[in-house]
Amino acid sequence: MLINLTPHDVTIRTQDGHELTYPPTGPIARVREERTIARVVEGVPFMQVQFCDVQGLPRSLDGVYMIVSSMVRQALPDRLDLVTPGYTIRDQHGQVIACRALYCNG
Question: Domain range for residue 55?
């Protein structure tokens, strides 16, 4: 079973052209950021960002794979139940409209 913990629909186009769409189910899993100003150049702040803990992510559940952002998946390399959209398909404007696969940690 796949559940979507991102804020938008995820559409997967299978090899035979069939599309599976997973709407957000909540909660939204996010990586918390801490930002500090490193310097200011010509009035523009240059920010340093440190990625901290993951928020909004349920515990692992048997047989359940969770669609999350790449940042969330990469922040937790030991979580084999986390997947992210990969091998994306874009429209004529460059917008992602689907993906052909899901990337995983192992």
Answer: 2-104
Number of structural domains the chain divides into: 1
3-state DSSP of the chain: CEEECCCCCEEEECCCCCEEEECECCCCCEEEEEEEEEEEECCEEEEEEEEEEEECCCCCCCCCEEECCHHHHHHCCCCCCEEEEEEEEECCCCCEEEEEEEEECC
- Torsion angles phi and psi, residue 28, rounded to 5: -85, 120
What is the per-residue pLDDT across 44-59, written as a single tens digit (0 to 9) for each?
Answer: 999 999 888 999 999 9
pTM of the complete model: 0.85
102 Rama class: left (phi>0) / alpha (psi -120 to 50) / beta = beta
